[in-house]
Amino acid sequence: GLELSIEENLDIIEEIAYADGSTAWTYLACGTTSAFFGAWCADGFVESAFAGGIPLMAGQLAPNGQGTKVDGGYLVNGSFQFGSGIDHATWAGMGFIVTDGDHPPEYRMGVVPKSDVRLTGNWDVMGLRATASYDYVAEAVFVPDAASFAYAAPGSMAPLHRRGGPVYDLGVLILTCVGHAAWAIGITRRALDELRALAPTKHRMGSATKLVESERFLHDFARLEQRARAAAGRAHEVFRQAEEAAELGTADAALSAEVRSTTAFVTEEGAEIVRACYLMAGTTGLRSGPLERAFRDIHAGTQHAMVNPQHHVEWAKTLV
After folding, report:
1. Lateral strand order in the sheet of 148-150
2. In this predicted structure, what is the pLDDT of residue 155?
3. What is the pTM (predicted TM-score) of this model?
4. Considering only Cβ atoms within 10 Å of each terminal Cβ, which end of the chain, N or C, has fewer?
5. Is 75 helix (H, G, I), strand (E, B) or coil?
């Protein structure tokens, strides 16, 4: 709503993730979903849905639904997963493919009152448990034209935004990456800080010295810090480039590939760094606490579509 800069958004989500991974994940999921439908949907819907303030919107926008065109909108059927925050949201978003024999298939994103879908649970997972990312089902749900938008017009990066600034020209993929990169940075920073706080007092079994007195620990810890700071710096660099491209109108598919590769890289690096912190902490990392939670959460985050190794392949193609 404030249209803060991308880097300010990075800072905010990093800070929330530092405090708790599930809170930040839900925040980024619901905030991004509300932003998309607020920017790209028709006036009538937005005036109604946002009348009482920014609504809580959640759901999976991947094209797991099938849509049929009807008067005034679409009938959607589909099974969706990973509805992070949907338990407390008031609106459920969904991606769907519209097939019409007279036209090419169209990928659309729509949102409906949560009461129109059926939550089916299925969130017994290793990490990010508090996101309550439940599965849900849409059965012949009516999605009005005004409450949906095409994923992207042919030849463009993003749908034509009806409100908001040029940042929305970056499209769904880049804007989704903002939160996921920031989330990984915050989780990684928390794990390193937990290990640093532990080092002055922690004895590993069989060692006569504390961690902080071990040159091997100090060497390894320094390298972990360098890796974490380098990854975070790279993320901030690429999102500065993205914001500049939005303002200049030069965003393209190569930029999208670079952003997605960077987001995957930051999360992959984070998972390796957090795992190293977990191992170096000994049994302290095993017990319930911030480091153990960071370990579970970052590994849950590696399974997200924004961390698909294919993103590296797509960026490499633009490089070579």
Report:
1. 118-121, 134-144, 73-83, 57-70, 91-100, 103-113, 148-150
2. 64
3. 0.95
4. C
5. strand
